[in-house]
Amino acid sequence: MSVLLTCRALSKSFGPRPLFRDISISFDDAERTGLIGPNGSGKSTLLKILAGIEPPDDGGIVSRRQLKLAYLPQEDVFPPGLSVREVMASAVPHAHAEEHELLTRADILLGKAGFERTDAPAESLSGGWRKRLAISRELMKEPDLLLLDEPTNHLDLEGVLWLEKLLSGAAFSFLLVSHDRYFLENVTNRVVELNATYADGYLSSAGGYADFLARREEYLSAQARNEQALASRVRREIEWLSRKAKARTTKAKGRIDEAGRMMEELSDLKTRNNQGASVQIDFSATERKTRKLLTAKGVSKSIGGRKLFANLDLVLSPGSKLGLIGPNGSGKTTLIRLLSGELEPDAGTIVRADGLRTVLFDQARLQLDKAATLRKALSLNGSDTVVYRDNGMHIVSWAKRFLFRTEQLDMPVSALSGGEQARILIARLMLQPADLLILDEPTNDLDIPSLEVLEESLADFPGALVLVTHDRFMLDRVSTDILALDGHGGARPYADTAQWQRARDDSQRQTAAAARAPAAQAAKPAKPAPGAGAAAAGKRLTYMELRELEGMESAVLGAEEELQSLQSHMNDPAVLADRHKLTELCEKVDAAQQKVHVLYERWQELEVRREANEQ
Q1: Which of 49, 272, 515, 612 is 20 to 30 A from 484 in CA distance terms?
Q2: What is the DSSP string of 90-106?
Q3: How confident is the model at residue 366 (pLDDT cuts 50, 70, 90)?
Q4: Are 487 and 327 in contact (CB under 8 A)?
Q5: Which domain holds residue 429?
Q6: Global pTM?
């Protein structure tokens, strides 16, 4: 284990507001680190500093000699006019590798990422496939350390599982920013939270996200106990000082100085312990008593001639919470537009309760006027007062509930971060009492503390909820039912994401087995044509050759399985990241292919001789 990169007393501010101060931390080649923290703590900025894109205000970075570092930003930008394959090839200067080697490596990585057409224009890809391409492009650089900023953004659940598999088998070290808690648990062996709550500006914990939660609770409890103990000591010192003891002796003067130091330390502790403010989210329901808010029966919908779902039945009642999952383009957004009344089904009926009040969270955030001020966006009309649950509240207090500072109220929405814009939408939804709450990807850009509060509010919401998200933790915590769309017209219910994933894995194994079946059938050579093998007809099969022929089908299938296993290893990130391993494996694949070829020829020869002898 060796250190790849060390940060020494890094500090960075955004205008007058400090993001972090005096951060000193190292990353080694055995670590797969998840970086978390509240919005505005500086996670993305720290990654940019490590990548050399932004300079720190103070401090420095020391890295291992010839460290190969790659960086995946949140936004996926590709040179215009390039195909998928050309984007990959352009990731590495041709001076560093032969063109055919680059293209071979690109094709292997693209195949592993699921791309079927490598000549497609990169700019035509959907958000999820752009993300896959952006990740694959960074892997072309064969990094020692890969920095990933929100790599699950725009990926559907299939994409997230693909990325989990890729990173779980990675031969390189990585540091990633993510708010996906299952993802963090499954791929990391170290979690670091960047937060001013901690004395060092961060808390590092070995293990996955669950281990981090236990470590954080232990740290914060100890810090709270330390504050209480220090507060008691400071009270005693204040009592002593109030007796107006004269600092005539060195001992007394030292005690006065120590009391001042303890007061400063207590103030610092209180500030750190109060850093953990969270968004206050609580959706309002109309408290309608209707048993069925919405009923969909036999609903079908096609887009552009492609069937998204057919004969779909749904009943949404107060307290029901439906989670929608499926690949990008499977029809999740179309279905919620049908439920909200924006679209009409091709077939079937949707019956809504009289006066049903539906509130929609739009993942595209089209409801936000980016030119409006935060004040206007939060209050819906620019007023200094909002009405929440029939009570008036000043806009400053309402803004603080969502962690906005007073000086931000007159800023344009466009100047706010993605997480802050998501909090504006949530604040607007809370001002609209609803029977049916529809949330389309509400987790994008929200930090983990905000996600936890959002989950609590959704779990307590008494109306009906339809939730579209790739956050499995939220789905499992909130949903009472899960509906999975497959993108081919099918829709199946599941109890939780684990049941869906087991069904998905079983389906993939069955598909792979079905694909192997024709090859096994083809392993039996065709009956020779009349006259074939005449030259060998006079040579009868020996006893050992007859035994060889009997076991030939099994031998061929075994050799094909060995070849398939070697070929699957070529998609292993650990192999792809090591040129020597890849070359060695390619040689093994060639040898295995030759072995299969030789076995088929031998099988054909033995069959020809047997048939000829029997005629």
Answers
A1: 515
A2: TTS-GGGS-HHHHHHHH
A3: confident
A4: yes
A5: 294-502
A6: 0.73
Given a contact cutoff of 8 angstroms between Cβ atoms, the answer to whether 34 and 209 are in contact is yes
62/203 same-domain check? yes
The SS3 of residue 422 is helix
141 and 18 part of one domain: yes
Q: Are residues 328 and 350 in the same domain?
A: yes
pLDDT digits (tens, 9 = 90+) for 524-561: 555 544 444 444 444 677 878 888 888 887 887 788 77
Residue indicated by tokens 């499954």: 186
Residue 540 and residue 498 share a domain: no
Q: Which two tokens stand for residue 288?
A: 């309608």
Q: Is the domain of 577 the same as that of 470?
A: no
CA–CA distance, 87 with 125 (Å, rounded to integer): 12
Shared-domain flag, residues 99 and 144:
yes
Q: How many CB atoms lie within 10 A of CB 384?
A: 11
Is 443 found in the same domain as 345?
A: yes
What is the signed CA dihedral for 94, 100, 105, 110, rounded to 10 degrees? 100
Residues in the chain: 615
What tokens does 151 get? 């790599």
CA–CA distance from 410 to each of 387, 404, 474 (Å)? 20, 11, 33
Q: Does residue 534 fall inside a structural domain?
A: yes
Q: Which two tokens stand for residue 261?
A: 């130091």
HSE-CB at 594 with a 13 A cutoff on CA atoms is: 6
Kindly state whether residues 325 and 398 are assigned to the same domain: yes
Q: 349-361: buried (b, 16+ CB within 10 Å) or exposed (e) per residue? A: ebebbeebbbbbb
